[in-house]
Amino acid sequence: MVTYIFDGSLEGLLTAIYNYYDNKAAAVVLIWDKLHQPSMLEETFEVVNDEAKAKRVWDGLKKKMSAEWQQRFYKAYLSEDPATFQHLFEFARYIFDNPVGAESNFGNKHVMAISKMDRSVNRERHRMKAFIRFQKTADGIYYCPIEPDFNVLPLIIAFFKNRYADQQWIIYDVKRKYGVYYDLQKVEEITYEFVSAVNKSQITLPAEVLDTKEELASLLWKDYFNSTNIPARKNMKLHIQHVPKRYWKYLNEKEGKN
Amino acid sequence: MSDRIREKLSILADAAKYDVSCSSSGGNRKNENKGIGDSSNGICHTYTEDGRCVSLLKILLTNHCIFDCAFCVSRKSNDVKRAAFTVEEVVELTMSFYRRNYIEGLFLSSGIFKNADFTMERLVRVVKKLRLEERFNGYIHLKTIPGASEELLTEAGLYADRMSINLEMPTETGLKLLAPDKSHEDVKKPLGFINDTIVQYKDEKKTGLIKSIPKFVPAGQSTQMVIGATPETDMEIMYSANEYYKNFNLKRVYYSGYIPISYDDRMPIIGSQPPLLRENRLYQTDWLMRFYGFEVQELLNLKNPLLDTDIDPKLSWALRNLDQFPVDINTADYRMILRVPGIGVRSAQKIVQARKFGKLRGGQLQKIGVAYSRAKHFIRCIDSPYILNEPDAPHLKNLILAESSSKYLKVAQNQLSLF
User: Fold this and answer.
1) What DSSP element (H or E) covers B184?
2) Is A216 on the interface with B (CB under 8 A)?
3) ω before B326 within 30° of 0 (cis)?
4) Which residues of A, range 226-245, sit inside 8 Å of B by Cβ?
5) Mind listing the pLDDT tens digit for each residue in A38-63?
6) Tens digit of pLDDT for each residue in B248-279?
7) For a pLDDT cut of 90, what percent of chain A falls above it?
8) Are B262 and B71 in contact (CB under 8 A)?
9) Cross-chain CB nearest to A107 (options B16, B53, B360)
10) Which residue blocks in chain A are alpha helix, DSSP H?
């Protein structure tokens, strides 16, 4: 048993897989460095990120997996979940050690674990497409802070770029401290400094930086949300199941309900 | 100014909410003109406190109406506040919501003012303005107004993604009882006309002779019936739904449990509970017809004209047809695996793929996502124990009910069949 310590990046994960074959290692426990607690009698191996090695592993996986499963691999990685990292590692071994098509063996626990995590990440991605509420600023940029469970921002960029092609927008991940900005041409990654003028603990922007019609638009949306409800059918359990409470502070129609 | 628009929105959203359709999927409009919006997969942007999805801005253009249908809040004789949007107001509201990512698009309906054509023409003006002036490619669900001219319907179809027209009551008799002025023929005619036009556009596209055929109602048509206002059986309801699915290629039939809104003594009184459980069972039946390969006659027939309330229709069918079980997970064909209670479409597909790699065990099925405590009574896997004396149907039902916790009441509330 060897403990592989990696930095939590995709490149690191793929390099670890390369190292495993290179070292002809026995069973490997893959640990994210920030979670690693050294213990006695533990044999450790420090994974040093290597772009060329990572690429070789990825190219190898691409040859053996359908495009759909390459996507799943990447999305499961975005979960940032330690147990999933281990599953991805074992899954890659399983794919390399078996004939093409092995990924559809849902009886294999790693295949199933990744398939499940893929669904969870997809759900979070879908939620972000749904729960983003842009606020129009005085300079015409539509801004929205988010705090998704998984690192799904890379998965929603194309969607917003296609949909809101004629308006500038910023989506900022408050938890992971990075965001993206669309300037009518292309999407760029932005960091903390770019939006440093904005108090990120406050979700609604202060009135002085907002467009003059923003308040009314938000008010009308809240009115609509209340009018379209049928009180005779009230079902809060279902409501909360679909709109979990942890997202409420980002939804203007739920303002004041927290 | 802002107070007036707020009041209008409240009135006209409130009046539109009994139309349950909120689907925004099935369209395929892309944002190719660097305009705004697209419609592809449905997205529910929020859910109201009654647990229903909010995907579209669902409003009436006006709740003024010349008809007096007993089941409708906007009926002429009802004493409610009336309001009407201008074309510009609807367009501005839609764009303002859409740009903030509140909605997927617009669901526009209307009370009938003056006459059918006059109303339909207004609706068409809204969608035309959205598409042509605002370059809006989001989803638009437009109501077909019965009796509107074919020219107007054709024009509407070129801009809308989905069109719908409500049957209101599951049978003609029911409809005549509450809305003597209306008939199902008035619904069939435009449904048929739009369906024919959709087919015609598709055929032209297939020939490939003309390069760019415009989209015509790309997300198809749907309808809605009100459940529990009139005394139809579940069988009558679902047979009617089935007929419309078959004859008009409908994408969806919606079943809306009647919420009492009137003191009319032909219908349930105000304050009585809407039939939510029944509505749920009807949707389950609808799903079995559309995704699970069931014929409506298998689920509902003269012997069983009413759906069980304590168990779902799939389990109910299985218990009536125990001779077809147990199903061997490792050999049975997909069609039969799909019919096992506790196995859904996703699980069935996974089972068929996974068993190529080796015989499946019960534990693996659980991981795959099968509701095993339910399914185990109907299947055999490689490690299933041999069972002497298979339990009979009533026994099995009790066994399953004892293990499961229904979100509805435990006590059976079947409608009694008298004969």
Assistant:
1) helix B184-207
2) yes
3) yes
4) 226-239, 241-243
5) 888 888 999 999 999 999 999 999 99
6) 999 999 999 998 888 888 888 888 888 999 99
7) 81
8) yes
9) B360
10) 10-23, 51-64, 67-77, 82-97, 109-131, 153-163, 214-227, 236-242
Q: Residue A178 pairs with which residues in a beta bridge?
A: A173, A191
Nearest to B136, CA basis, from B87, B89, B93, B95: B95
Altogether, the residues listed in chain B come to a count of 419
Which residues, other chains included, contact B292 with Cβ-Cβ below 8 Å and sequence gap of 6+?
Answer: B314, B338, B339, B345
Q: CA-CA distances (angstroms) from residue B66 to B28, B115, B119, B238?
A: 36, 8, 11, 31
- Min Cα–Cα distance to chain A from B257, Å: 10
- Residues in CB range of B212: below 8 A, 6 or more apart: none
Question: A 107-166 residues with CB below 8 A of B?
Answer: 107-109, 112, 126, 129-136, 142, 144, 162-166
ipTM metric: 0.92
Q: In percent, how much of chain A has pLDDT > 70?
A: 96
Q: State whether A230 and B276 contact (CB < 8 Å).
A: no
- Rounded to whole angstroms, the Cα distance separating A60 from A182 reads 34
Q: How many Cα atoms occupy the beta-carbon half-sphere of B230 within 13 Å?
A: 19
Structure tokens at B281: 């069972």
Cβ separation of A165 and B276 shorter than 8 Å? Answer: no
Our measurement of the distance from residue B31's CA atom to the centroid of its chain's CA atoms, rounded to an integer in Å, reads 27
Question: pLDDT, tens digit, for every residue of A175-191?
Answer: 998 999 999 999 999 98
Interface list for A 33-72 with B (CB within 8 A): none
Chain A residues within an 8 Å CB radius of B274: 232-233
Q: Do B31 and A223 touch (CB under 8 A)?
A: no
Count of Cβ atoms closer than 10 Å to residue B63 Cβ: 25
Helix (H) or strand (E) segment spanning residue A44: strand A43-46
| Residue B389 CB-density burial (10 A; 0-12 exposed, 13-18 middle, 19+ buried) | exposed
3-state secondary structure of A139: coil
Alpha-carbon distance values, B413 to A67, A194, B409 (Å): 50, 61, 8
Tokens at B58, concatenated: 């669902």
